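ok posting inputs for the 6-hydroxyuridine-5'-phosphate job
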Amino acid sequence: MARDVGLVVALDLTDKSKALEIAEEVRDYVDMIKINYPLVLSAGISIIEELSEIKPVVADFKIADIPYTSGLIAQIAFKWKAKALICHGFVGSDTVKAILNVAKNFDGEVYVVSELSSAGGREYMSKHSNEIAKMAKELGCHGIIAPATRVDRVAELREIVGDLKIFSPGIGAQRGDMEVVKYVDYIIVGRSIYNAKNPKKAAEEIIKRIESIENLK
Ligand code: BMP
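and the output
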């Protein structure tokens, strides 16, 4: 049976060669590679291009700035061959629109953070995440990021975004609930894969867990 829910590996490493090694190791199990500041600030922006030879890269820069500056950041990420970019939604529609305009020139995708999976995500973001998700859908973004640590919220966000892609971090180290698979298109996993003794086996196990929940759907 083909899997409906994909796996994105988050490579929050500061050692470039280790990041490349793990990417190679798990390439048959993951659909995309997500990178964030720890790796880019350590390895340099060209790591996007290098990793994109292995799998499409999501540049998780969580952009949260004025439209002009945000557009510049987006341009750099896409020039270096990112397939998709993550930005914040709480900054408002003008910034998200500016990023989307840049993305169009590169045929790139834009995913918007709804509410963070960490506890602090409840303090401010969750009060507005439904509106943020609605905005992402209305503007024509390609996906949202929603927390596996709060499956009830993800279920609600799914109602709002319809067929928009949902990416869900929080499985593993953040003790999220795998049941989230019922509502999302991709789960994002970092530490449980790259800190594992055998990252390939860890990725394989996660896929098995995804499949076992999918079979109950
Ligand atoms: P880990 O599996 O190690 O907890 O990694 C999760 C990844 O997803 C990290 O790269 C983190 O920056 C990202 N992330 C998250 O954990 N929660 C969010 O709400 C949004 C994220 O992008």
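notes: The chain has a mean pLDDT of 97. The radius of gyration is 16 Å.
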